[in-house]
Amino acid sequence: MENPNKYSVRKAQIADTEIISHTLNDAFSDDPVFNWFMRDDAKRSHHQSRFFQKLIQLLGFEEGEISIIEEGKGVAFWIPFPGEMTPPLAKEIVALPYLIGATGFARFHRLVKLRSEMEKYKEKSPHAYLWFLGVRSDCQGKGMGGNLLDVCLKTIDEKGIVAALETATPRNLPLYQSRGFEIIHEYRPAKSAPSIWTMRRKPKQN
User: Fold this and answer.
1) CA angle 62, 95, 195 (to 5 degrees)
2) Confidence check: pLDDT of 4 > 60
3) What 3-state class would DSSP assign to 199?
4) What is the DSSP string of 125-150?
5) Residue, of 90 and 48, whose pLDDT is higher
6) Is the pLDDT of residue 86 over 60?
7) Among residues 148, 11, 129, which one has the least CA distance to residue 66?
8) Contacts 24+ apart (CB under 8 A), 52-59
9) Cβ count near 1 (within 10 Å)
10) How many other C-beta atoms can be found within 10 angstroms of the C-beta atom of residue 163?
11) Helix (H) or strand (E) holding 65
12) Percent residues over pLDDT 90 in the chain
């Protein structure tokens, strides 16, 4: 991957699955929406890491594309959506035990509600969906997330497709807006949930 900045970025391989899951687990340990639907006990980190690992195994390399920066200190996990596509039922069934493990039975309904609300506001046109962008907590504030995003968006622009994402972290909004993303919707999946912003970016013309 061409990279105009100082960090090393490359496409992830299956052998990177463990470090990717650990990085995302760390990066999302204080994410507002994860704090809302994930279990709230000492087992969260273990089950959340397994949750990420299963998502990577099921969708990261066949349907999706994962890029890493500095050998896994940051991760960008993209899923291409041709339009009104949802993950195959068979894969959702396989992932179910890991989803319940991550949320616990008491909060699983929150994940179901979140999924339902996300469907209402998702991008309808063919697009590249940024499922997760995360940088390890001890590496944040060094420009890695922005660098990684820039490299990925260059590839997406070359394909001429829309990019879309959601974030529940207000401090991330300027990062995305500076790269051309616009806020499309702001919603809360439940009264107890944090706000979520749906964002969309048109491809830049060369």
Assistant:
1) 95
2) no
3) strand
4) SSEEEEEEEEE-GGGTTSSHHHHHHH
5) 48
6) no
7) 11
8) 52/20, 52/21, 52/24, 52/25, 53/17, 53/18, 53/21, 54/94, 54/95, 54/98, 55/95, 56/17, 56/20, 56/21, 57/17, 58/91, 58/94, 58/95, 59/87, 59/91
9) 13
10) 24
11) strand 65-69
12) 83
* Rounded Cα gap, residues 94 and 81, in angstroms: 21
Q: What is the pLDDT of residues 13-37, one digit of tens each?
A: 999 999 999 999 999 999 999 999 9
Looking at 56-162, list the stretches that DSSP marks H as alpha helix, in order from N- to C-terminal side: 89-103, 108-121, 144-159
Is the model's pTM score more than 0.85?
A: yes
- How far is 187 from 197, CA to CA, in rounded Å? 7
Q: Which two three-digit tokens encode residue 29?
A: 């340990």
Angle (CA) 28 58 165, round 5°: 45
Q: How far apart are CA 161 and CA 153, in angstroms?
A: 10
Tokens found for residue 179: 């790269």
Q: Which residues, including other chains, have CB under 8 Å from residue 96's CB and lie 6 or more apart?
A: none
Angle at 156 between CA 153 and CA 160, to 5 degrees: 130
Q: Which CATH architecture has domain 9-201?
A: 3-Layer(aba) Sandwich (3.40)
Residue 140 has pLDDT above 70, yes or no: yes
